[in-house]
């Protein structure tokens, strides 16, 4: 496998497949977040694309969340805001897209990766796709992704996962709470189901799909500013001595 981080957009039978990869368990540093946001915007602007699928490369890890290597280098609030704004950019690009977005989660997903899954219009996973909100354990919190996560699984489940920050919750838990629509035995079966659904949706009336997208995301226009406000909170907290010391232990 290519060991360099990348984001690719490929079009197949009216479906735009966006694939991201990072050698550190598909972690999301700033440049990958920007590439991912740009790919989502590009897919929305491409007439040949009717439906979008977001997925990551590799087998058992969908996304490790924020890049700890980059977090530890942040030295001021401006840099912190810029980094966490990357997650805001991706989630808002998904929300503002006129096209339905399916997220394909083949393995474990943590923090910001969970935010991406929650911001999809439909999410499909394998039984290995456990989820975790680990942010409190390193001294910050899931502030930017919280609106997307809460919207999908509810405030109570979001709070439970946030407080129990070192526990992986099973894919079945994620399905029971509404994050995953379907859970499959393995990646091959998942991929077949994703392709089948995406192709089916791509054959539907695009105007109807666009109108449904608007309905799905009613009352979220304020997220453009809300997620940036949340990014400021995380950007400040990442400067704390607690967080810096904790991140050093992970390096």
Summarize the structure.
With 251 residues, the chain is α/β, with parallel strands linked by helices. The protein is built from eleven helices and nine strands.
How would you characterize the overall build of this protein?
Strand 1 and strand 2 form a beta hairpin. Helix 1 runs parallel beside helix 3, helix 3 packs antiparallel against helix 10 and helix 5 packs across helix 6. The protein is globular, with a radius of gyration of 17 Å. Helix content is 49%, strand content 16%. It has 251 residues and is of the alpha/beta class. The chain has a single domain, classed as 2-enoyl-CoA Hydratase, Chain A, domain 1 (Alpha-Beta Complex). The strands form two sheets. It has a six-stranded mixed sheet, sandwiched between helices. The protein has a three-stranded parallel sheet with strand order 4-6-8.
Annotation keywords:
6-stranded mixed β-sheet; 3-stranded parallel β-sheet; 2-enoyl-CoA Hydratase, Chain A, domain 1; 251 residues; alpha/beta
CATH-assigned homologous superfamily:
2-enoyl-CoA Hydratase, Chain A, domain 1
H/E element order: EEHEEHHEEHEEHHHEHHHH
Q: Which architecture per CATH?
A: Alpha-Beta Complex
- Residue-averaged pLDDT, rounded? 96
Anisotropy-based shape: globular
Largest sheet descriptor:
6 strands, mixed
- Helix-residue proportion: 40-55%
Oligomer: single chain
Rg? 17 Å
How many strands?
Answer: 9
Strand order of the largest sheet: 1-2-3-5-7-9
Low-confidence stretches: none
CATH topology: 2-enoyl-CoA Hydratase, Chain A, domain 1
Strand content is 15-25%
Distance between the termini: 24 Å
Tell me the count of domains.
1
Helix segment count?
Answer: 11
CATH class: Alpha Beta
Please state the structural category.
Answer: alpha/beta
